[in-house]
Amino acid sequence: MIRRLRAGDPRLARLRTAVRTDARARAGAFVIIAGLLTAIALLLAPPATVTYSVGEVAKGAIRAPRSVSFVSESLTEAERDRAAAAVQKQYATDPAIVVNASTRLQSSVAAIGRIRLEAAQTRDQKITALTRLPDVALTTAIATDIVDMTQPEWDQVASAVDTGLRTLYAQGIKAEQLDAVKADAVKALPSGWTDRQKRAGAEIVKQNLDANVKVDQLATNLAQQDARNAVTPVQVQVTAGEAIVRTDEVVTKLEVEKLRALGLANEGADWRGAIGLLLWAVLIAGVLALFIERYATEAWLDDRKMILVVVSLLVLTAAGRTLVPTHTVAVYYAPFAAIAMMLTVLVGGRTALATQIAGALHVGIMSSQVELVAYVLVPALLGMAAVHRATTAREFAVGAVAVAAGAAGVILAFVLVGRAEDPLGVAQLLGGALVSGLGSGLLAFAGMAILGHVFRIPTVFELRELSDPNHPLLRQLLLRTPGTYHHSLLVGNLAERAAEVIGADPLVARVGAYYHDIGKMRNPTAFIENQTGGNPHDELDPLVSAGIVAAHIKDGLALADRYSLPAQIREMIPGHHGTSVVRYFFQLAQQRGQAPDERSFRYPGPRPRSKEAGIVMLADGTEASVRSLSEKNPETIRGMVERIIDERVADGQLDECDLTFRDVQKIKDAFCELLLGVYHERIPYPEDRITRIKPAASG
Fold it and tell me: What pTM did the predictor assign?
C-alpha cells in the first residue's frame, strides 16, 4: 500500500530538501508542476461551443461573433474533383498488337494459298477447307470468291493485304473506333481490284484488326493529379454577424467548417490532440525552467518567486483558454500585459519576459494565429520597459499608455496587412486595446502590492518605508547606537552609488546597508564607533572578544525576524561579513603568542549571494577602514579601498554572488569618488582672519 505523505513525514522533508538543493530535482519539479497545470488549462473544454455534424438538423441559429477568413476543404475538394474530371484520357499505342496481327495475317494467307494449290481436292472440298481454317473465319461466300480467283488475282491479294492492315493500324485504332475501321477496311485496299478481290481481302484484313491505342491509366492519373494540384484553395470569408446555421435546417459540410474556423465547433474527445497539448505544455515548461535557471538565478533559487511564476503562467493560459476559442472581440480587452509588468517588479525582467513568451506561445497553439501571439507579447514588452524600476505609481500609468499604444499598433499592422474592410470591427478592436492597456496598468499595480505581500516579495514602496528614518528599527538604531547609525548611512550611500554603476538595485542596496548592523544594538559599547569611554575588550581574551563581535550577526537576524524584514534585506545581515575573519582580534591573539585557530575567528556567514549583498559587504569594510585612516587624501583612500576589496576577493567572499571583475573595478571607482567627496581637503581658516560679530549695544 502506498502511504500518503503527511506534513511531518521525513520523506516529505527529504523531498523538499532535494528540490531546494539539487538542481535536477528542482528543474524536474518545476517542469512537472508547471507543465501539468498548464496542460490542464489547455485541455479544458472551450466554452460556448456546439456539436454539429454534417446532415444533422440544427436546433438553434448561430451567428458569427467575429469576421474570419479560412480555406474551405469541402469547396476546394469539389473544385479539384471538377478539374480532374475535365482532364482528357491519356492514350498509348501498343506496337505488339500490330506485329501479332501481321503475323496472324501472313499465316492465314499462307494457309489459304496452300489450300488453293491442292490439286487432289475438288472445288467444293477447297471451299469447305477454307471455312475450317483456325486463324481466320471465312464464310462460304468469301471462300468461294477465294477459290474462284485466278492465281494472279490471289497473288495480288496475298501481297497487298499486309500493307492494307498496317495502313489501318498506322492511323491508330481505339476500342470505340474498331467497328468503324473494320467497316471501312476495303478502302485500304487497291481500288483497281475486282469485287471478289476486295471482298476477300477486306474480310482477311478485318479478321486481324484490333484496338492498338488504349487508355494509359498511369498517365491519366498523373494528369488528373496535376490538375488537382493546380487548383487554388478556395478562400471563404465570414463576416461578423453572418448567420452560419439556421434553426431547423440541415447542417452542411461548409457550415461545419465555418463553425470550426470560428472556434465554435466542439470536436469531442481528441486523444491525439490531448497528447500533443500535454507534450507542448511540458516542452514549454522545460524551456522556461532552463532559461530562468541559466539567466535569472536569483529568481530560480527563490521558492516564492518560482511559485509566482507558475501561477502567472497558469493565469495567462487559463485566460487564453477562456477567451481564445470563441475569439470574440472580448479577447482584445484582456489585460495580458499585466502579468509581465507585475513579474518585472516582483521577480525580474528576464523571468517576466520568459514567462510572457511562454504564455503567448500557449495562446498561439490555442488560436493558431500569429496576430494573438503578437497581441499578448508585444504590448507586454513595452509595459515591462516602462515599469523596469517601478519607483513611482507614475511609471505604471506610463506603462498603461505604452501597452495601449503597443496593442493598437499590433491591431493596425495586422488590419493593414490583411486588408480588412470592417471599420466598425477595427474600432471595436482599438477600443479593446485602450481598455487592455489601462487594465494592465491598474492590475499590475494592484497585483504588485497584493502578491508582493502574499509571497513576501519586497516592493519598491515597502523598501521606501523601510528606508524612512522614522521606522521603529532605524529610530532605535539612532538612539541606542548613534555611531553605528552614522556608519550605516555612509555605507548606504556607498552601496547605492555602486549599485547604480553596475546595474544592480540601488534601493535594495541602500536599505540593506541601513539594517546590516542592527544587531549591534544589543551590546553597543562592544563596537568602537559607539564607545565614548574605555574599551571593554581591553580586559578580554581575543577569542572571547571575537565571539562578542560576531554575535551581532545572530542578534541582527533575531531583530530582522521580529520586525519581518524582507529576505533581500535580511540577507545583508550575515552577508556583510560573510565568513571573513575577525581580523583585529585574530592578529591580537597572534601578537600575544596564542597561535589561534583561524576558523574560530571567522564570522558564521553565509557569504553574500546577491549583487546587492556583495556590494554592502565591500562598502561596510571600505567605510570603516577609510574612517580609521589618520591621513585622508586621494592616495591613501584609493590604496585602502583597493586593499580592502582585494582582500575580500582573495578570501573568496564574493564567490557565491554574480559580481564580475569588471563590476568590482567599477565598485572601487565609485567608492573612491564618493569617499573623496566626503573626506575632501578643507581650506584652513586662521583665528585672526575670522571676523567676530560685535555684541549688540545694551539699552
Answer: 0.62
